[in-house]
Structure formats: structure tokens, C-alpha cells
């Protein structure tokens, strides 16, 4: 098994199950360029390594790293610096790398496998978008979900939320989640049909494995059912990149007062203080 700097891997051959998580290595828990670059290397390795018949994998599960992968937001320091310096190309590169990561997860790393997001902590912004890219979302009942860009600094999520929510839900419900500025409980999104399984905190890992075993019993149907949905409601990388281009353009036009709020939030993150949204 290959060793990565920011990514930890566990492979359970008998269960045909790959777990991966991102470790913070002492950084603020965010989606920085280093992590995105390494994730690109990781996706290439996963496809190559698990294409071998002696390494079967039917489920790829992303779970929490040492400092809460799914509570991670975008790298606000990088974003704000790019805005201040008017470095559109740097912000575009950052957005495109994020899209590449989302699209690899959405396409199961090029393997005949199903992806599962296992969420144990609150998830906001880009982290929520990352979870949406998976075929299934399993979440502990107490976790909270939000796309806070609209409320916090007059922006919108640009790394897949629009494309993925409109495909997972109906137009009305997707619009509600994208625009109403609410913080949702896991149970709320389960009722929307966005989350597939709610698990209890005290036995979440056991319930996750049980849920995966049930899917595995009907894997042929679940896999091809998922492929049919992706064919009917097809999602191209070009669509995701087009939205990201709009995201970059919007940030270049951001009002100084909104940029100031971004800087305040960045300072809060650097102190690892939870921002109330």
C-alpha cells in the first residue's frame, strides 16, 4: 500500500472495502492546494492499484481525518489573498483542482465501486459539497450541514453543490437548501432525501458496516441503478468547471465589506474557533 502525506488508507480485502481519510498534519483543517494536489495523486493510485483482480473493491468510504475532514471548509486564506491580489488564475487553478477531486469521487475513481461518505462531524461549504459527490451519505444524527457562503459573505458554493443537489433532489428542494441560509440537522436532510442513512453516535461505525453489508447483498442492482441515474441525469466535468468559472468571476467582483467578513472568518478558523452561522 502506498503511503501519502495527508491521506490515510485502510483496506479490508474480505469486505472489498477501502477506507480513506485526510489528516491535517498540524494545519488548519481546510482544503488547501497541497491536499488537493495530493488527492489528485491519490485518485490515480486508487484506480491503478484496485484495478488488479487480486485487490477487489466494491465500496470506497471516505471518513473523518484526525482533524475532521468533513468540517473543513475552503482555504479562505488562499482565496482572500487571491482576491486581494486580483490573481484570477490562482483562484481558477484552486477551483479546478477542487472540481477534479469532486468528479473523481462522483465517478468512483474510475472503478466498478460505490462511494460512501461517512459523516461524524458538522460539515460546511466545500466539505458539504464533497459529501454530495458520493453515491451514499451516512451521517450521525447530531451532525449539522450548511452552505454558508450566501449568509456569511454574499457568495455561492462553486464546487459542485448546484450540480449535485439538483440531481439528488427536485428543483424546489435544491433551491431551498442553496438559498435559505439554514443550518440543517442530519434528520432534516434525510427527510429531503439527501442523506441515505442516519446512524446513532454511540454505534455509528457498527451501523455503517451493517448498512454497507445490506447494499453488498444487492450490489449488482445498486451499482447499475446508480449508473442508470448518472446516465439519465448526466454530469460532465465541463458543467462543473463552468460553474467554477462563475464562482471565480463572482469572487473577483466581491464587495469590500463581504471580503472583510471573509477575513474575519479566516481569523476565526486560524484560532480553530467555531463560527456561528
Q: Can you give keywords for this protein?
A:
12 helices, single chain, 2-enoyl-CoA Hydratase, Chain A, domain 1, three-stranded mixed sheet, 277 residues, globular, disordered C terminus, six-stranded mixed sheet, alpha/beta
Q: How much of the residues is beta strand, in percent?
A: 5-15%
How many domains comprise the coordinates? 1
CATH superfamily: 2-enoyl-CoA Hydratase, Chain A, domain 1
Cα-atom Rg, whole angstroms?
18 Å
Q: Give the CA-CA distance, first to last residue.
A: 40 Å
Enter the CATH topology name. 2-enoyl-CoA Hydratase, Chain A, domain 1
Number of strands: 11
- What proportion of the residues is helical, as a percent range? 40-55%
Which geometry do the CA atoms define? Answer: globular
The helix/strand series, from N terminus to C terminus, equals EEEHEEHHEEHEEHHHEHEHHHH
Number of helices: 12
Structural class: alpha/beta
Strand order in space, largest sheet: 1-2-4-6-8-11
Just give the CATH class: Alpha Beta
At CATH's second level, what is the architecture?
Alpha-Beta Complex
Largest sheet: 6 strands, mixed
Mean pLDDT: 89
List unreliable stretches of 5+ residues. Answer: 65-72, 273-277
Amino acid at each position: 500500500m502506498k503511503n501519502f502525506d495527508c491521506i490515510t488508507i485502510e483496506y479490508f480485502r474480505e469486505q472489498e472495502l477501502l477506507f480513506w481519510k485526510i489528516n491535517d498534519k498540524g494545519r488548519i483543517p481546510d482544503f488547501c492546494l497541497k491536499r488537493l494536489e495530493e488527492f489528485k495523486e491519490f485518485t490515480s493510485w486508487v484506480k491503478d492499484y484496485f484495478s488488479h483482480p487480486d485487490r477487489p473493491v466494491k465500496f470506497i468510504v471516505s471518513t473523518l481525518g484526525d482533524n475532521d475532514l468533513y468540517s473543513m471548509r475552503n482555504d479562505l486564506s488562499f482565496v482572500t489573498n487571491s482576491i486581494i491580489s486580483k490573481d484570477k488564475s490562482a483562484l481558477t487553478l484552486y477551483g479546478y483542482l477542487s472540481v477534479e477531486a469532486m468528479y473523481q469521487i462522483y465517478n468512483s475513481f474510475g472503478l466498478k465501486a460505490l462511494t460512501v461518505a461517512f459523516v461524524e462531524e458538522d460539515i460546511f461549504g466545500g466539505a458539504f459539497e464533497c459529501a454530495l459527490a458520493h453515491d451514499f451519505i451516512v451521517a450521525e444524527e447530531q451532525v449539522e450541514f450548511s452552505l454558508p457562503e450566501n449568509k456569511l459573505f454574499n457568495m455561492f458554493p462553486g464546487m459542485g453543490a448546484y450540480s449535485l443537489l439538483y440531481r439528488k433532489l427536485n428543483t424546489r428542494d435544491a433551491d431551498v437548501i442553496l438559498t435559505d441560509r439554514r443550518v440543517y440537522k442530519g434528520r432534516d436532510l434525510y427527510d429531503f432525501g439527501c442523506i441515505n442513512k442516519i446512524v446513532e453516535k454511540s454505534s455509528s461505525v457498527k451501523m455503517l458496516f451493517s448498512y454497507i453489508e445490506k447494499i453488498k447483498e444487492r450490489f449488482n442492482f445498486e451499482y447499475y441503478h446508480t449508473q442508470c441515474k448518472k446516465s439519465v441525469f448526466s454530469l460532465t466535468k465541463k458543467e462543473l468547471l463552468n460553474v467554477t468559472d462563475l464562482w471565480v468571476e463572482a469572487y473577483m467582483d466581491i464587495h469590500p465589506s463581504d471580503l472583510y467578513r471573509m477575513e474575519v472568518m479566516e481569523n476565526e478558523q486560524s484560532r480553530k474557533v467555531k463560527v456561528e452561522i
